[in-house]
Amino acid sequence: MKIGDHVVYAQDGTKGIILEIHDNLYHIIWEDHFSSWEYAERLTVLEAYP
Q1: Contacts of 29 by beta carbon, 8 Å cutoff, 6+ apart
Q2: Taking the domains of the chain in order of start, what are their residue ranges?
Q3: What is the per-residue pLDDT for 42?
Q4: Cα–Cα distance for residue pair 47/24, rounded to 1 Å
Q5: What is the mean pLDDT of the chain?
Q6: Residue 30 forms beta bridges with which residues?
Q7: Integer CA distances (angstroms), 33 to 1, 4, 15, 23, in order
Q8: Which residues of 14-47 are buried (b: 16+ CB within 10 A; e: fewer)?
Q9: CA separation, residue 46 to residues 8, 17, 22 (Å)
Q10: pLDDT tens across 10-32, in order?
Q11: Contacts of 37 (CB under 8 A, 6+ apart)
């Protein structure tokens, strides 16, 4: 995963974009404009964002 990738949060399907990466933590801005730091294991990269 890299900055700018579109991702989905595994637990609820929320979509977001990676803003920063520090080790195994990813700073995500979510579709509702909330942001959070998440572990890679909880994220899946979207190949094509609608």
Answers
A1: 16, 17, 19, 35
A2: 6-45
A3: 97
A4: 21
A5: 93
A6: 16
A7: 20, 15, 10, 23
A8: eebbbeeeeeeebbbeeeeeeeeebeeeebeeee
A9: 7, 10, 20
A10: 999 999 999 999 999 999 999 99
A11: 22, 25, 26, 27, 28
Residue where the block lists tokens 């195994």: 24
pTM score above 0.90: no
**From CA 16, how far away is CA 18, in angstroms rounded?**
7
**H/E element holding 28?**
strand 25-30
Structure tokens at 11: 């637990």
CA 25/CA 38 separation, integer angstroms: 5
pLDDT of residue 19: 98
